[in-house]
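Quick one, tokens below:
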């Protein structure tokens, strides 16, 4: 609606030609360029803060500073333009007013869209669709009565209406930034300084673990969420180290033993997050490893090539006897 005011203000009221009447849009373009530069610089700030304090689970609210700045600039530009666009005032004053408008519009657009991406993650497309539908509905409806509104209210008050609307919406970026995590912004800043990822989000340690696992192994959060149940289990890994594990996989140079090693490292990485006692690793033909917490321990165990038979039943019997006797029955056993 603001952009539709330009032909009315400069062509109808100032009697400019159609070509000259389009030149004031340069002010909006300058604002957009400045906002683009600002968002690039702000992204450097975002990357630095995220990598330093919470690289695993960055807060969506850290995307909002451009929207906060833009929400301040937008009503300033609109009110400035609304009350300096009369023919009695030099045209450059109202053109300059369009610069903070272009800056605020672009900053809000980029900040809000980045916030939606980090908030809705795999549902971002749905969030974008809802956002665009609402924007297009408002954009198409306002076009139906923009000219009539400027005729009835005049160029000052007609432009002031969207300015008042942006003024009403101004607090929302601040509210999302302050209460988006359910914590005051001051506490978020304090926790950022301490680097405490778990407290930053004011969520349980399990939620932070799920976030890290889903990002690290590129799996859906819904799938990673099922791993919560591991906290009720004592985890034991049984590895087949028989001679058959030397078999190559699908015409590659990798063997079943190589794939088993990578699989065990992943299971160990996830398991130790939920089992503070560590993970026990049993082999069919070599000594077991108890209370394993470090992946390098697995590398040492897998450095020797596989050999031997597959005495699965005796090994499982040994596991049931030793593990249940050693750990008790406070947790279930997961093999």
């Amino acid at each position: 609606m603001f952009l539709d005011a330009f032909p009315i203000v400069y062509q109808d009221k100032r009697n400019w030609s159609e070509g000259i009447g389009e030149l004031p849009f340069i002010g909006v373009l300058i604002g957009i360029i400045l906002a683009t530069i600002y968002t690039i610089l702000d992204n450097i700030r975002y990357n630095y803060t995220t990598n330093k304090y919470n690289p695993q689970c960055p807060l969506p609210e850290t995307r909002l500073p451009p929207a906060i700045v833009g929400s301040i600039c937008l009503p300033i530009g609109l009110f400035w333009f609304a009350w300096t666009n009369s023919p009695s005032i030099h045209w450059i004053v109202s053109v300059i007013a369009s610069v903070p408008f272009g800056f605020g519009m672009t900053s809000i657009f980029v900040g809000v869209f980045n916030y939606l991406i980090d908030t809705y993650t795999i549902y971002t497309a749905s969030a974008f669709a809802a956002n665009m539908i609402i924007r297009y509905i408002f954009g198409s409806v306002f076009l139906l009565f923009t000219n009539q509104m400027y005729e009835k209210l005049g160029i000052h008050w007609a432009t002031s209406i969207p300015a008042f609307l942006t003024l009403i919406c101004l607090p929302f970026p601040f509210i999302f930034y302050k209460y988006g995590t359910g914590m005051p912004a001051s506490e978020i800043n304090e926790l950022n300084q301490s680097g405490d990822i778990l407290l930053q989000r004011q969520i349980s340690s399990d939620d932070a673990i799920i976030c890290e696992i889903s990002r690290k192994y590129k799996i859906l959060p819904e799938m990673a969420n099922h791993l919560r149940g591991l906290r009720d289990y004592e985890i034991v890994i049984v590895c087949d180290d028989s001679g058959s594990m030397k078999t190559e996989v699908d015409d590659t140079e990798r063997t079943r033993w190589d794939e088993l090693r990578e699989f065990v490292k992943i299971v160990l990485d996830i398991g130790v997050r939920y089992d503070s006692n560590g993970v026990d690793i049993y082999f069919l033909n070599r000594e077991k490893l108890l209370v394993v917490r470090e992946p390098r321990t697995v590398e040492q165990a897998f450095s020797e090539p596989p050999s031997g038979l597959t005495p699965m039943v005796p090994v499982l019997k040994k596991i049931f006897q030793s593990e249940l006797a050693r750990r008790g029955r406070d947790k279930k056993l997961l093999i």
